[in-house]
Every structure is written in C-alpha cells, then in structure tokens.
Amino acid sequence: MAATCMYLACKTEESPHHIKHIWGESKAAFAEVSADIKFQYEIPDIAECESYLLEEMKFYLVVYHPYQVLIDLNEHIKLPKPSLQAAWSIINDSYCTDMILVYPPHVIAVASLFLSRVIDQGILGDLDAQQWFADLNVDITDILQVVNDMIELYHKWNSYSEDKMPELVQKYIADLAATA
User: Fold this and answer.
1) What is the largest CA-CA distance in the chain?
2) Nearest to 109 by CA among 129, 84, 78, 132
3) What are phi and psi of 94, to 5 degrees?
4) Which of 42, 45, 50 is CA-nearest to residue 8?
C-alpha cells in the first residue's frame, strides 16, 4: 500500500514517476531496512492497488497544503523575507511527521508563523502579534500542539546518531517478530 500511495501522490502533485521507478525504490527501501523483509509485490500489484486506493478515497484527490495558507496570511502581515523563509522551512519539516495527516493545513501554517516569530525574536510586521493570533479564530491548543511536535522533532534531529540505527532497526524487527 505504501508504494501505491507514493505512486498516486506523485501523480496528484503533478510530479509523476514511472511505476517501475516507484517499484524499484520500494524494493530498495525494504532491502535497506532489513535482509529479512522482502518487498513481495510486483508492478501489476501496485497498479491494481491504485484503483482500490482511488475507490477508497472516493476519487477525491484535492489536497490542501499549508503553503497556500502561509502565502495568504503573509499578504496581511507582510513578514520580512527571512521570516517567511523560516516559516516555509518549518512547514517543509512538518512533512517529516504525521501532523500533516492530523491537523488542518491552516493550523500548521499558523504554527509555522508562530515558530518563525519566536526564531526572529518577535518580529511580525507592523501588527500587534498577540492580538493578531487572537483574531485568527484558530484553536490555540492545536497550534501549541503542532509547535510542541515541531520542537520535539528538532530535538530528535539534534540528538540523532547514525551509529545507533542498525541496532534500533534490529530491535524493531525483533519486536515485530515477537508480536506476530
């Protein structure tokens, strides 16, 4: 299903990749994780699964991203270019988590603005930032949860060590085998 989702996402985002490429990359990714896990599907399986996925999604492929919300908000607040770039980078980083599936795009965009404001030590155009955030009519608990998730992500990235990965992957595989 993961390979099919990637294949369909590439098509949806107008960045199509040949199905053979998706299949090859999926096979390589599984081999990279562990020699014990084999990617057991072939190209026709991915193509068949695509129709099932589309049917499950009721053929609704409109995807909303936080980027457009950020651009729309910036038309009102007119952030300096470095602040806008910081917010854009924070949104990019949010795609490394599941928050893009959990929170609506506008919450992630506002949280990225909040974090970029903190990074820039309070610069938010000519507006009173506290009043501006209050006027947005967005649940502040969701925004703070996204901010917290992003801070946790940055903390994990900061403490990441490539040397620990083989041990962690083997432990994960052992845990999977124990539960099966």
Assistant:
1) 58
2) 84
3) -65, -25
4) 50
pLDDT tens figures, 165-175: 788 788 888 88
* Separation between Cα atoms, residue 125 and residue 83, nearest integer Å: 10
CA–CA dist 87, 61 (Å, integer): 26
Q: Among residues 119, 67, 75, 73, which one has the least CA distance to residue 95? A: 67
H-only helix segments in 13-42: 19-33
What is the distance between the alpha carbons of residues 10 and 15, in angstroms, rounded to a whole number?
5
This model's pTM is above 0.90:
no
DSSP per-residue codes, 58-127? TT------HHHHHHHHHHHH---HHHHHHHHHHHHHHTTSSHHHHS-HHHHHHHHHHHHHHHTTS-BTBS
